[in-house]
Amino acid sequence: MADDLSHRHGPITGLFGAEPLTRLSADHVAAFESDGFIGGVRLLTDQQIESLRAELADLMRPEHSGRELWYEHHANESSDAGTTLFHALGGWRLRPALHDILWSPTFVAAAERLLNGPIRFWHDQLFCKPAHDGGVVAWHQDYSYWTRTVPMQHLTCWIGLDDSTLDNGCVHYVPGSHRWPLLPRPQLAGDMEAIRSVLTSDQLAEFQPAPCEMRAGEASFHHPLMLHGSYENRSDRPRRAIVLNVVRDGTVSDQDSPLLEGVDAVPRGEPLSGRFFPLLSS
Question: Could you tell me the domains of the chain?
Answer without folding.
Answer: 35-61+70-248 (2.60.120.620)
